[in-house]
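Researcher: Please translate sequence to structure tokens.
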Amino acid sequence: MTAPWISVIMPARNAASVIGACLESINAERRAFDESEVIVVDNGSTDATPAIAAAASARVVSLPGLRVSALRNRAASIARAPLLAFIDADHELGSGWCEAVRDLFADPSVGAAGAPCYAPPGGTWVQRAYDCLRRHDGRRRDVSWLGSGNLVIRADVFRQLGGFDEVLETCEDVDLCRRLVMTGKRLVEDPRLVNIHHGDPRTLGGVFRGELWRGRDNLRVTFRPPLELRSVLSALQPATTLLAVGVLLGLAVISGSLWWLLASTAFVLAASVPRWLQMMSRAKTMTPRMWFDCAVVAIVFDLGRAAALVARASHEARGNSSPVVGGVTKS
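Model: Translation complete:
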């Protein structure tokens, strides 16, 4: 049997409504390049996810009760290709993705590559504003982090790094990318690796719960050496917001004055201005409605990150319209 040139690894649980489109986009690319394999790691689905994956010629491995980092590591241990592509089940790849991967990894200095995802077409106003959190300027560049929903890495580099840290429930991709860059290998963001994320939060509640879940390990990963000033400042912002709001609300309760409550609200709004301005710099349209939408999403996003410092949410509680994908059951 001819060894594949790339192994696609896809963790999934109860992803029947989205995994078909994901696998179809992968198979469309596989027809252009033979000798590839797809491994779907099912995390105890109770719907048709395994059957859909098998019908799409994927190899299905059942591993219930594991975190997403462990699922990916187990699949990587049985993958046969020199390149590992980590694709989440609620992503859809664009045309030319495989060709771009082959071109990128012809350069031996490239250790891993990927690209920020896009919001689903025809999505909600929240999803359109949420997409402005990502950079889509069409430039190829070396970066320090890429999301694991659309990430390709050399198998030998992945194994030398020890894979994803299975202690982490979130931010495991941030940690992996940081360790990769420390080895001197390049992490390349390439806009040709187009992918659509159908799991973007559809509502403000979804944005809040998503950051409440995602922020679980944010501080732990940020303060692992070597420290990066930008990352530290980003991590301290929610901590500062939480502390200030807590103090101001406490003063409001003690004094019975609404002024402290108004001051708390004003602080939250002011703290989100930098993120709001960054989002607007990336917006495709500069209408008053988009200014407002981005401001609201920025505020809710930052509140979710701040709340994550004192509260915990599960992946299942994120409240997105799409099913849980990626299997993050606590171990």
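Researcher: Any highlights?
Model: DSSP finds 13 helices and ten strands in the chain.
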